[in-house]
Amino acid sequence: MNAPIVCLNAPRSQRLKTATHQTHDALDKRIMAADIFASREHFAGFLRVQYRFHRDIEHLYADAALAALLPALAERARLLKIANDLSDLGHGVPEPGAPPATLGQGIWHSLGWLYVAEGSNLGGTVLFKMARDQLGLHRGFGAGHLAGHPEGAARHWRQFTQALDSIVMDDLQEQQVIDGACQAFVTVRGYVEQELPRVADTQASPA
Ligand code: HEM
C-alpha cells in the first residue's frame, strides 16, 4: 500500500489528519461492524469505549501548560457527559483501569491525544444523528456527549485547530504530536476490541 502523501506546508492539523487517515478509517469501519445502533445496549458498549478513552485524557483538559496553548481547554472535557449518557441508559461507568503506558510522555504527545479527542467530535455529529434516528436518543438523553457544541461542531473544531496550528514547534516536537495522535488511536482501537464484539462474532453458531 502506498504511504499517504504529506505536504509539509499544510497546516499541522491537516498533516495529522493525513498521518492518521488510515487508522481512523479502519477504526470507523470496525465500530460500524459492531452495529452500535442495533440497540441501546449495543450503543452502551460504544459509550464505554468513549468513557475509557476520555477518562485516560481527562487530566489533560486541566493541564495548565496545555491550557496556555489551547484557549478554553477545560470547557472541552466530555467525560462527565459520557458518564451521564451511560447513566441515562441504565449503565454505570467502567471499572477503573490502568492508564495507557503511552500516555504521559510530555506536552507534545499530549497535543496529539487531544487532537484525536477533539477531532472525534466531527464524526460525533454523524453518530449523533444515527443515535437520534435509530435509537431515539438526544442531547438530553443518552447522546449528550455527541451533540455538537451549541456554536456548531465545525466552528468549535476550527477554533481548536487554529490554536493547534499556531503553536511554534521544531521537527522533533512535530513528530511527537503525530506519535501521540497515533497512540491515541491505537488505545481507542484496543478499547473497541474489548467492548464491542463484531456482529459476525456474536452471531457465529457454536462449533
Ligand atoms: C463509527 C465511528 C466514526 C465515524 C463514522 C467517524 C466519522 C468521521 C467524520 C465523518 C469525520 C469528519 C470528516 C473528516 O474530516 O474526515 C471525522 C473526523 C475525525 N474523527 Fe471520526 N468517526 C468515527 C469515530 C471516531 C473515533 C472513535 C475517533 C477517535 C477517538 C475519531 C477521530 C476523528 C478525528 C481525529 C477526526 C478529525 C479529522 C480531521 O483532522 O479533520 N473518529 N470522523
Helix-strand category: mainly alpha
Principal-axes geometry comes out as: globular
- What helical percentage do the residues reach? 55-70%
Bound molecules: protoporphyrin IX containing FE
Distance between the termini: 36 Å
Helical segment count: 8
**CATH third-level topology:** Heme Oxygenase, Chain A
Q: What is the H-and-E element order?
A: HHHHHHHH
Count of domains: 1
What do we call the CATH homologous superfamily? Heme oxygenase-like
Low-confidence residue ranges: none
Total strand segments: 0
**CATH architecture tag:** Up-down Bundle
Q: What is the arithmetic mean of pLDDT?
A: 93
As a percent range, the share of strand residues is: under 5%
Largest sheet: none
Question: What's the level 1 CATH class?
Answer: Mainly Alpha
Radius of gyration: 17 Å
Describe the protein's architecture and organization.
The protein is mainly α and 207 residues long. 62% of the residues lie in helices and 0% in strands. It contains eight helices and no strands. Bound molecules: protoporphyrin IX containing FE. Protoporphyrin IX containing FE (HEM) is lined by residues 13, 16-17, 24, 27-28, 31-32, 53, 115-116, 119-120, 122-123, 126-127, 188.
What is the compact description of this entry?
With 207 residues, this protein is mainly alpha-helical. The protein has helices at 12-33, 40-57, 64-69, 79-88, 107-135, 153-165, 171-195, 199-203.
Structural features:
mainly alpha; Heme Oxygenase, Chain A; 207 residues
